[in-house]
Amino acid sequence: MSTDEITVTDEGGVRLITMNRPAKKNAITADMYGAMADAVNGAQDDKDLRVVVITGAGDVFTAGNDMGAFLNPQARMGDKDLPVERFLRAILSAKKPLIGAVNGMAIGIGTTMLLHCDLVYASDTARFSVPFINLGLMPEAGSSLLLPFAVGPKKAAQMLMFGEFHSAQEAQEMHLVNEVFAADTLMDEVMTRARALAQKPPAALLLIKELLKREPESPGARMARESALFADRLQSAECKEAATAFFEKRAPDFSNC
């Protein structure tokens, strides 16, 4: 599915997905959800793409769901064929690193989708809100589980029960955001980091993300899992290239690994 309201550009191993409906504060329609799902899923099978970045056009990340479309009585959350559900499954199951670049207001799904991103960067003008309670609705995107894990149970309760706005600085302090930048430098900073991440050993990067996203297990079980992977990686082409580059005093090149 494609739409002019989602733009996708690929460069330097990075796929940039932009919600491009600034006149409507990038409120997300069904077609936009479908296009983003296709863009995220398509990146997983493209060997030239290593990282996916999601942002919004203009000075807003997204105002959340387009309420006119979302309140359509024929649309029911939980229907796996709905574009919104396809998008949520795409970001949940993405094997490659996801980065959120929040350039302004991030309301509802604009905040909850960030819980599925591996890294989140924000402009100093960003504001975050999960206002489901104010609409008589329930949290979505797994946020009732992931938000307490990210910011702590008390802070998550405050955010979900009051639905208030939080500044970029507050979001960084509660560990919802990695770093905050001036609005006019945000995308340069994000793309610099995304391109650097795209140069890392790709298979090792996927394995690290998989470990971080795994269900909880005992420390002993996780240690055994890591040790097995460590031993296997010692024989990998990526490790051999890194070692060769070290001894040859050059930057490693993992493009052929």
The order of strands across the largest sheet is 1-2-3-5-7-10
Assign the CATH topology of the largest domain: 2-enoyl-CoA Hydratase, Chain A, domain 1
What fraction strand? 15-25%
**H/E topology pattern:** EEHEEHHEEHEEHHEHEHHHH
Weakly predicted, low-confidence segments: none
- What is the average per-residue confidence, as pLDDT, rounded to a whole number? 94
Helix percent reads 40-55%
Radius of gyration: 19 Å
Supply the number of structural domains: 2
Chart the SSEs and their pairings:
Layout (H helix, E strand, L loop, with lengths): L5 E6 L2 E6 L10 H15 L6 E6 L3 E3 L4 H4 L12 H11 L4 E5 L2 E3 L1 H4 L6 E5 L3 E3 L13 H9 L1 H10 L3 E2 H6 L5 E3 L4 H13 L3 H12 L5 H16 L2 H11 L10
Parallel strand pairs: 2-3, 3-5, 4-6, 5-7, 6-8, 7-10
Antiparallel strand pairs: 1-2, 8-9
Helix pairs in contact: 1-3, 5-6
